[in-house]
């Protein structure tokens, strides 16, 4: 294992305080910054993971962000984890995925179901900057985990592992692999187990590395494969009970899927900043591009998409702590909708950038890289369709009761400065049991005294949409309640996820009245109108000056070098 | 569908389960073999979790969503649920 503590860029983390990754990684435009855009782009051209970047993240101790505090790491809040990782995704999605996310996905099942010894071992490995790989994918089965074929046969005091995993990040250099293996030949959901592999201890003769897979986006990520042939693995490598991997996955992936979209917000923060910089510098028809009505509207829409994405991402991450019994639906919804919104926003922004949106060099070259990387960020760890298929079976029960009668959530779900209870991995519900407190926020606001008429009118559009969804979903034919459902069910999940996003925006506005930006009603009206438009509903005419108001906010943040997300913090550089 | 049911005999539970499974698989109740593993007659892990939801609403009883993973036939499920409902008093 490489433990490199070479000098690193930016300022060293102060002793005794939480290190600040954004400040530590320094000005992304500085050509001398080893993790700035010029270096990031050069590594992408070479198809390599930026080595200096990996050293810098070792120096910061990024892996500690994934390790629960009780085990000596810094993980205690899912929303904070996403916000910290945003600093990496603002600069290099490849590093974010290839250094960060891969290890996070591999470690989470161990936090969820591992023994005290296994958790300790994984924590120590991560805190030493080790690499863990998530051994799930088999090309023949993809996310149809129930048919995963790699076999582990128990033989006395050890398993004998035979089969292959393919297209798995960091497999060729992993110190640990969380391996999803078939431990029972029968069909069913008790036939797979996780094995925690210590790669250094496995006999080399029984495993063989397969070729690297090359990708269009996140080109430096090391996607590899591994073939096992009668490979002995100690029996105590099993994570949780034999046959429990499916259940562990259904819990652990709520955390990973619930957090990843919030990290990806950082990618579009950079896209928007890049295009805004261009639009302010470049003059056409005697004025800056940013003053052209279409360009300005596109920039403001991009800002709104980013705020909407962050509202849903942040609220779902907080729900893992506050409403763990309901997050089986929310985590799939956020992993479906947010990458989609971010991708759509980036594509619209590319129109403003014009030909420069695909130039691989020059001052805006990070844009084309991010455009390619965004697709990979969407596909990583469950595609849109997989997430939708996770929601579909729960729709009828949500329709029968949850959308009408769930209790509203505690305000801590939305109050960004409120502390959160520890994340109880074992407490994450496999099914929401028809409960949906997030959308109940819409009805709660409408029922309350003294609500803002403009906000209430827009909220009414979404509760009416929910009523329509309830009618359709309660009567779904049996075939349309499963992963093999027709297109209609998939469309229903898109509409439902959009309503969830509206509820998240409302809650963030309503419960953060002490925040000078968030309490400001125009952004909420614009965000809700945008989401209503996405559903084909008529949000009515926008109030005069709304776009200008948001554009001024966008410009202020740009001039003061602050992020465009809910955190609204000062950025390095 | 919510509320309690009068008859919690194994037979009544079995008949109700067969009805639900026949609905999901879009087959007649006669075609459902009560001793066959659910997954082999086409009830995958997702349907199995949906079935747990049906049970909760029908019997006003909280069960694990993985109930049908651990009691993988109609007869096994009927026996398990009868045990739970019988002990409820």
UniProtKB/TrEMBL annotation, chain B:
Signal peptide: none annotated. It holds the Pfam family PP-binding. It comes from the Bacteria. InterPro entries: ACP-like_sf, PKS_PP-bd, PP-bd_ACP. Keywords: Phosphopantetheine, Phosphoprotein. Residues 8-85 form the Carrier domain. The keyword Phosphoprotein applies. This is Phosphopantetheine attachment site domain protein. It comes from Plantactinospora mayteni.
